[in-house]
Amino acid sequence: MTEDVETVERVTGTGVPVRGNDIDTDQIIPARFLKVVTFDGLGQFVFQDVRFTDDDEPKDHPFNEDRFRDASILVVNANFGCGSSREHAPQALKRWGIDAIVGESFAEIFAGNCLALGVPTVTADQAEIEALQEFVDENPDAEIDVDVDDETVSYGDREIDATVDDAQRRALVEGVWDTTALMKSNAEAVAETAASLPYIEAGAGGDA
Amino acid sequence: MSEGTLYDKVWDRHKVTTLPTGQDQLFVGLHLVHEVTSPQAFGMLRERDMEVAYPERTHATVDHIVPTDDLDRPFEGAAEEMMSQLEENVREAGIEFSHPGTGDQGIVHVIGPEQGLTQPGMTVVCGDSHTSTHGAFGALAFGIGTSQIRDVLATGTVAMEKKDVRRVRVDGELGEGVEAKDVILEIIRRLGTDGGVGYVYEYAGEAIRNLDMEGRMSICNMSIEGGARAGYVEPDETTYEWLRETDAFEDDPERFEELKPYWESIASDDDAEYDDEVVIDGSALDPVVTWGTTPGQGVGIDDPIPAPEDLPEDKQDTARRAQEHMRVEPGETMAGYPIDVAFLGSCTNARLPDLRRAARVVAGREVHDDVRAMVVPGSQRVKAAAEREGLDEVFREAGFDWRGAGCSMCLGMNPDQLEGDEACASSSNRNFVGRQGSKEGRTVLMNPRMVAAAAIEGEVTDVRDLPETEVKA
Known about the structure:
Chain A is of the alpha/beta class. In chain A, about 30% of the residues lie in helices and about 15% in strands. Chain A folds into two domains: about 10-175, Aconitase, domain 4 (Alpha-Beta Barrel), CATH 3.20.19.10; about 180-210, no CATH class. Chain A is built from eight helices and eight strands; from the N terminus they run ββααβαβαβαβββααα. Chain A has a four-stranded antiparallel beta sheet, covered by helices on one side. The longest helix of chain A is centred in the middle third of the chain and has 13 residues, at about 125-140. The mean pLDDT of chain A is about 95. Chain B is an alpha/beta fold. Chain B is about 30% helix and about 15% strand. In chain B, the strands form five sheets. Chain B has a five-stranded parallel beta sheet with strand order 5-4-3-6-7, with helices on both faces. Chain B has a five-stranded parallel beta sheet with strand order 17-16-15-18-19. Chain B has a four-stranded parallel beta sheet with strand order 11-10-9-12. In chain B, helix 6 packs parallel to helix 8 (about 215-220) and helix 12 (about 350-360) packs parallel to helix 15 (about 450-455). The longest helix of chain B has 16 residues, at about 80-95. Chain B is globular and about 55 Å long. At the A-B interface, helix 4, helix 6, helix 7 and helix 8 of A face strand 1, helix 2, helix 3, helix 5 and helix 10 of B.
């Protein structure tokens, strides 16, 4: 492996809990903020409609609390990131400062989008997650250690068993989550696969 | 692990290799592109000095941001920048673009099938979660994020992990007034919004077989609302009849005959093995409407809204919050829930048969005084076909707004939005808080005929209580 490959074996930082099941990507980044042609600047709008009133007055939300301002590990409940496929959601979270998400479960497209940004989505059972959320609430300055390779989350004097999807773990630990170049290098095999498909007309093909 | 299913077969035919992550690299047969999720991907390609590998397997349209009343350029605000970026990107790459000037523009999941771009046994991807729609044709179709769009543009392939296959069998005949939309809302109600995570759904059984292609699309469309990234129906004569009349084959019957054996070959084997199976009695269903703020919070029109404490523990908090937002009480039915807006549109339910059925409810009646009602056909072609049949007149006479094609009020990205705490009877797919553009807005999902009935009565209404009028073409 070359020196310049970025890997994510572990993420260490303080936490921020966002409670509730089925938090959809419309909540994470409302559709009106998708009217952009780059992802820059999305960080300030993360959770906008649950964080602010129409008059831009801050509401009760962990992302508005000073004590969580430097957090990098988001702790969530079940089916986080469901709904729209917008990568704007993990982009907004990452640009706000989130480097890893620990939760009960994640929607598939969302988890895939996080992986594409090198952000692990780590799961643990409900009781463990609730305990972790409580800990973070009481200890906003305490360090949490998400070990992607060992599939554990450690905080205080506890270490909990977590799960990282196999492909995600390998991609992060070996630094191969950005698959473009890798897949590009298989261009010849891609062209062969394409040519074997009845619906691809002979002579058509990519730039292989 | 499943064996011999359509999913297994299509996967194997498109697999290029296994990547070091353990994911498979899959060839993409059709890549659909729209203005919201693609500009950043084209930008990343430029940064890496890469070109689009398979422009001829790529097709673009514009749907999320287009106004549905006035298409004069420039569009308002950022919408114009998104439109011109898309125009520049497709021009540079040589990608075909169904823009409004072609008469072929529309919601990406409506135009792909209607142009015959979507075919059985293909892999179809798009930066849009409702790409699952195309599974109705026996394609393996799923939504992807922007970084994956970059991959597909650059390589014609996508990295994916294989999922389990759950067969969802809907037996029996659907009752009068019960539609595909009701079936999928019931499936999501039963299996949960995350019940399909890790699965691809194969929809089977008599009730599915009897559906037209549009109904099958409505069902596959909302697979993602149940957590399943992809869902499909095996191709059959209904599928082939539809395909025969699309642009792809209308003038090329030989090509149709050439491909048909392939389409037949990818159907699931009789002895295929599934990872899970769920059976639903389709004949027992009533029209389903949602009472909450997730698509899984549905209820039969005559049934009481559940008390949160009667739901599984992990659903209780969400249900309480949803009932507060929607201002509904456990024990009541949704019938009689007052509505302010009726939206007939979206990639779930804005195809010609959807409009025809709704028109039969609307004909000879008037939209309730307190309701603003709109019909947004799924594509310019749907709109033109409906106008040839005079459906626009039926809707207009009743007091509906008859709009141009686009995503419209399904999501708050264009001028069509809810205001304040308006309640909307909607044929779309998501009732998330804020989804329709106002965070106090309230969305009640239902089938298109039920939307028509709600528009007329000013409240959620069992459409079976409204006699229909034949609409002559």
